[in-house]
C-alpha cells in the first residue's frame, strides 16, 4: 500500500501541479469513442481528470465507476464531481475484485495515466478483461509520449522511480496473451494509445 500513500500525499496539490491539455484528451477520446448509455470504468481516476469528458459522452442513461487505490484521490474526485451517474470506489485493480460496484459488464474501461504504476500488469489486465462485457474495450492512454512519462518517473524517483510504460508492441503482446484483441496501438511524441477488445470479432478503428 506504499503506492496508495504516495498518491494520498500527492492528492491535495495534484490539480495545481499536474496540468492536462483538454484538447489532447478530447483528441484521444475521439479515437476511442464512448457511446451514450454505456457503462464506463475509470481505473486510477485520481482527482477525476477524465470524469467530465466521459460524462459528456455517456449521456443521461450511462454510468461511470471511478476507482482508485488512494482514498485521498477518491475523496478529491468525489468533491469535484458530483453527479448521480458516478460511483466512487477505493480499490486495487490488481487485487481480488469482489465489489458490487464492479459487476463484470463494463462497455469500456479507461486506464488514463495509470498503467506504468501497476506492479503486476498482467494481473491488472486479467482483472480488467474479466470486468468487460463481451465486445467491451480496454483503453490505455497517455497524453504524453512514453519517453516523457518514463523520464518524469525517473526524475521523481522514490515510489514511482522505476515505473515504466512499455512500448505499445510489448503491451499488445501482453494483452494478446490474455485473450484481448488489439484494435489500435499508437505511440507518438504527443500521445500513447492502446485499445483492446474482449471479443474475437472486430476490425481496426
Ligand atoms: C498518475 S495518477 C493519474 C490520475 C488521473 N488518471 C490523472 O490522469 O490525473 C495514477 C493514479 O492511479 C492510481 N493507481 C495506481 N495503481 C492503482 C491500482 N493498482 N488500482 C487502482 N488505482 C491505482 C493512483 O492512486 C493514482 O491516483
How does this model look, in words?
- By secondary structure, the chain is an alpha/beta fold.
- The chain has one domain (2-12, 19-197): Rossmann fold (3-Layer(aba) Sandwich).
- 37% of the residues lie in helices and 23% in strands.
- A 7-stranded mixed sheet has the order 3-2-1-4-5-7-6, sandwiched between helices.
- Helix 1 (2-11) packs parallel to helix 5 (71-80).
- The N and C termini lie far apart (37 Å).
- Bound molecules: S-adenosylmethionine.
- The site of S-adenosylmethionine has 22 residues, from helix 1 and strand 2.
Keywords:
alpha/beta; single chain; 205 residues; binds S-adenosylmethionine
Q: What's a quick, concise take on this entry?
A:
The chain is an alpha/beta fold. It has helices at 2-11, 14-17, 22-31, 51-58, 71-80, 121-131, 146-156, 168-178; strands at 39-43, 63-68, 86-90, 106-112, 132-142, 181-187, 192-197.
Q: What proportion of the residues is helical, as a percent range?
A: 25-40%
Poorly predicted runs of 5 or more residues? none
Q: How many distinct domains?
A: 1
Tally of DSSP helical segments = 8
Task: Tell me the CATH superfamily.
Answer: Vaccinia Virus protein VP39
**Helix-strand category:** alpha/beta
Which hetero compounds are present in the coordinates?
S-adenosylmethionine
Overall geometry: globular
N/C terminus separation: 37 Å
CATH architecture type: 3-Layer(aba) Sandwich
Strand adjacency order, main sheet: 3-2-1-4-5-7-6
Instruction: Output mean pLDDT.
Output: 93
**How large, in whole angstroms, is the Cα Rg?**
16 Å
User: The CATH topology is what?
Assistant: Rossmann fold
Order of helices and strands: HHHEHEHEEHEHHEE
Strand content: 15-25%
- SS elements, strand count: 7
CATH class: Alpha Beta
Amino acid at each position: 500500500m506504499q503506492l496508495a500513500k504516495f498518491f494520498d500525499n500527492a492528492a491535495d496539490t495534484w490539480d495545481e501541479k499536474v496540468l492536462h491539455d483538454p484538447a489532447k484528451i478530447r483528441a484521444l477520446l475521439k479515437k476511442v469513442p464512448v457511446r451514450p448509455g454505456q457503462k464506463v470504468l475509470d481505473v486510477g481516476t485520481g482527482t477525476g481528470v477524465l470524469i467530465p469528458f466521459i460524462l459528456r459522452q455517456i449521456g443521461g442513461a450511462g454510468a461511470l465507476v471511478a476507482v482508485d487505490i488512494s482514498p485521498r484521490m477518491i475523496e478529491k474526485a468525489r468533491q469535484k464531481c458530483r453527479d448521480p451517474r458516478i460511483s466512487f470506489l477505493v480499490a486495487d485493480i490488481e487485487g481480488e475484485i469482489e465489489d458490487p460496484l464492479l459487476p463484470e459488464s463494463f462497455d469500456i474501461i479507461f486506464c488514463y495515466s495509470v498503467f506504468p504504476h501497476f506492479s503486476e500488469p498482467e494481473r491488472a489486465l486479467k482483472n480488467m478483461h474479466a470486468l468487460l462485457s463481451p465486445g467491451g474495450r480496454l483503453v490505455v492512454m497517455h497524453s504524453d509520449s512514453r519517453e516523457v512519462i518514463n523520464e518524469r518517473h525517473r526524475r521523481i524517483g522514490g515510489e514511482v522511480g522505476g515505473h515504466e510504460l512499455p512500448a505499445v508492441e510489448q503491451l499488445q503482446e501482453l494483452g494478446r496473451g490474455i485473450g484481448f484483441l488489439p484494435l489500435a496501438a499508437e505511440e507518438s511524441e504527443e500521445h500513447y494509445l492502446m485499445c483492446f477488445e474482449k471479443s474475437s470479432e472486430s476490425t481496426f478503428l
